[in-house]
Design a protein that fits this description.
The chain is globular and about 70 Å long. It is about 40% helix and about 25% strand. Strands 3, 4, 5, 6, 9, 10 and 11 form a seven-stranded mixed sheet that branches. A two-stranded antiparallel sheet has the order 1-2. About 30% of the residues are buried. The protein contains nine helices and eleven strands.
């Protein structure tokens, strides 16, 4: 069999397109132009002798060969990062006390934390999750070194990671009736986003009634999946099985908001700084 050595820059470009669904978004993630990404993917396809992506003006998808190759590409890149992490990242040691709001990219978070651990095995992580207001006391009392949460009432400064949007969600078979009082599933009163949703409904003169209160975003969505009512959640946290509602359904539009990273110390220790640099790179790309 002919020996073919694959370039990791080409693999990363292919993975970026597969994960973001487009060449422009992939380029922004990696720091290349759209054409630069396209050239690298085409070079990878030529080296493999297989077409990996189906391209059209509106959509980029994986071919059958692309789907087969995707898991191999991830494993190769992960193994490379793990080896580099052991040899170089392992020199960075320390403890990272991390707080992450429970609505921050929950579908991506396990993969991101796993990759950071492979890159920096010497950094021991302690993580706390909750709503922004739940994380604030620990941050102010010095129990958390880094927090990732929305920028607003609880945390006012910090470095922007990305902008998210608030959206209405309901179960797939939920019957929305605006001629009746709207059943709402909400977070506790101290949640800033809860107030935004109620104000939006009041401005639209839509009567509402709180039927269920949960202390977490996953709990809210679980109740919505059960058909108890509708809820407002960040777009990047929407669970599978929920459908989005909007102005076409008669509901008011909701604002966007900032997700930012907040540091306890202006000059954090090496382990914390490594995480800040890593997550800033990963989450500054379009989601």
């Amino acid at each position: 069999m002919l020996r073919i050595d694959l370039d990791f820059d080409l693999l990363r470009s292919f993975l970026a397109v597969a994960e973001t669904g487009g060449f422009t978004a992939a380029g922004e993630r990696i720091g290349l132009t759209q054409s630069g990404i396209s050239v690298r993917v085409r070079r990878l396809e030529e080296r493999l002798g297989r077409r990996l992506l189906e391209r059209s003006t509106r959509h980029v998808g994986l071919t059958e060969s692309g789907e087969l190759f995707l898991s191999y590409a991830r494993r190769m890149v992960d193994l490379n990062d793990e080896a580099v992490g052991r040899l170089r990242g392992g020199l960075t040691e320390g403890r990272l006390r991390l707080g992450i709001a429970d609505y921050v990219v929950p579908h991506q978070l396990p993969k991101l934390l796993g990759r950071f651990n492979r890159l920096y095995p010497g950094v021991k992580m302690e993580m706390r999750t909750g709503l922004s207001m739940d994380l604030l006391p620990g941050f102010e009392q010095g129990e958390l070194d880094v927090v990732i949460a929305s920028r607003g009432m609880a945390f006012r400064d910090g470095g922007l990671l990305y902008r998210d949007a608030l959206v209405w969600v309901a179960a797939a078979d939920f019957s929305l009736r605006l001629d009746r009082t709207l059943p709402l599933v909400v977070l506790p009163p101290h949640c800033t986003h809860r107030g935004l949703s109620l104000e939006a409904l009041d401005r639209a003169r839509i009567p509402w009634e709180i039927v269920y209160v949960s202390s977490s975003t996953p709990g809210v969505q679980a109740a919505v999946l059960g058909g108890l009512g509708i809820a407002m959640v960040p777009a990047t946290s929407v669970m599978p099985g929920l459908r989005r509602l909007g102005v076409e359904d008669g509901l008011p539009t909701l604002p966007e908001f900032d997700i930012a990273i907040f540091l306890r110390e202006e000059k954090p220790p090496p382990g914390c700084q490594a995480f800040v640099d890593f997550i800033s790179t990963e989450l500054s790309a379009p989601l």
